[in-house]
Amino acid sequence: MAQSSARARFLTVAEVAGLLRVSTMTVYRLIKAGELAAVRVGRSYRVAEDDVDRYLASSYTQAV
């Protein structure tokens, strides 16, 4: 059975904040509110790139 060579890439809170152009506290608030999925590694959080994309797609609104 062949395994997929694509692996999930995990980002730090600071990297997510940079991508979204928000502060790290905003990212922590999104994680705590359950709006952005994350995994805890030790004392820090990691967010999968796919979860960032999913969050952006779900919160995207068209300007009128």
Rg measurement, Å: 13 Å
Q: Could you estimate the helical fraction of the residues in percent?
A: 40-55%
Order of strands, main sheet, comes to 1-3-2
Largest sheet: 3 strands, antiparallel
Number of H/I helices: 3
Looking at the chains present, what oligomeric state does this protein adopt? Answer: single chain
Unreliable spans: none
Global structural class: alpha+beta
Order of helices and strands: EHHEEH
Question: Brief description of this entry?
Answer:
By secondary structure, this protein is an alpha+beta fold. 45% of the residues lie in helices and 17% in strands.
Give a structural overview:
With 64 residues, the protein is α+β, with helices and mostly antiparallel strands. It has one domain (10-59). The protein is 45% helix and 17% strand. It has a three-stranded antiparallel beta sheet. A hairpin with a 2-residue loop joins strand 2 (39-41) and strand 3. Helix 1 packs across helix 2. The chain is globular, with a radius of gyration of 13 Å. The termini are far apart. The model has no long low-confidence stretch (mean pLDDT 90).
SSE blueprint and pairings:
Blueprint: E1 10-12, H1 13-20, H2 24-33, E2 39-41, E3 44-48, H3 49-59
Antiparallel strand pairs: 1-3, 2-3
Keywords:
64 residues; alpha+beta; 17% strand
